[in-house]
Amino acid sequence: MSNNSPRRVVCKPTWVANSFLIRARNDDIQDLDPLKIQKLTYNLHGWNLAVTGSSIIGETFETWPHGPVCASIYHQSKDFKFRTISGYAQDIDPSTRQQPATYVNPADLSFYDIFDRAWERYKSYSGQQLSDFTPAVGTPWSYASENVLQYIPDNIVRDHFIEFSQNVQ
After folding, report:
1. pTM for the full model?
2. How far is the C-alpha of 14 from the C-alpha of 91, rounded, in Å?
């Protein structure tokens, strides 16, 4: 007996961040700073959970004081502070010791289906505007914060985005 359902690929957060950087450059969006890339990635993560039921990002978002944060993206982009990110995130390949800048393969249509929709929905917001949405009362971040959780549970994020989709026309 075989399972013919498509296998969901979990992406490194840096691949997702780089995919956003590439799309921003292609669309001439020039305000992709560390805060905005965090919130774009979080929203993509939430929508993917709501649509597919599974995580697209191989890291759990943490409950930081001002909202959800993907630590690896934070550490890759923190040197840009409040400035537009001008370089790609890089990971060390343990076999070659090189630091390639990797992104999600454009042939991954299941990834880009949700990515494109999230990008179109949120690209015009600033990082601060996107950040203002995430720590509000009733959000996954507020739940995790109130319950003193280091990580925001994916099931709470999924349920939030499902509920949000039902209230948005």
Report:
1. 0.89
2. 8
